[in-house]
Amino acid sequence: MARVESLIKLNGTIGDLSFYKSKSVGYQARMKTGVSGARIANDPAFARTRENGSEFGRSQQEGKKLRELLRDVLFENSDNKFSQRLASRLLKVIQMDSVNVRGERVIVPENLVLLDGMECNQRSSLRAITLKPFTVTYDRFSGDGFFSCPQLIPNLHIAKLSGATHVQYTLVLQEFSGDELDQRPVIRRSAYIKLGEMQPMDVDLMASLEADPEKSVLVLVGTGYFQMVNNAYYPLANGQYNALTISQVIMP
Question: Is 156 left (phi over 0), alpha (psi -120 to 50) or beta?
Answer without folding.
Answer: alpha
